[in-house]
Amino acid sequence: MPKPYPAEFRRGVVAVARKHEAPLAQIAKDFGISEATLHN
Questions:
Q1: Which of 3, 4, 26, 32 could form a disulfide with 22, with the two C-beta atoms 3.0–4.6 Å apart?
Q2: What pTM was estimated for this model as a whole?
Q3: CA 5 to chain centre
């Protein structure tokens, strides 16, 4: 199982996603994570 992302990274990605300025798929691609990871 891969190591979890650092808490600071997770907070930043979630903050970007909550702004709804781009689709989740694009945000996930930009940050190099899967869309399912972002969705969870």
A1: 26
A2: 0.81
A3: 10
Structure tokens at 33: 């994570």
Q: How many residues does the chain have?
A: 40
Do 38 and 13 form a contact (C-beta atoms < 8 A)? yes
* Structure tokens belonging to residue 20: 């709804």
Tokens of 27: 């945000």
| Each residue's pLDDT expressed in tens, for the chain with a length of 40 residues | 778 899 999 999 999 999 999 999 999 999 999 999 988 8
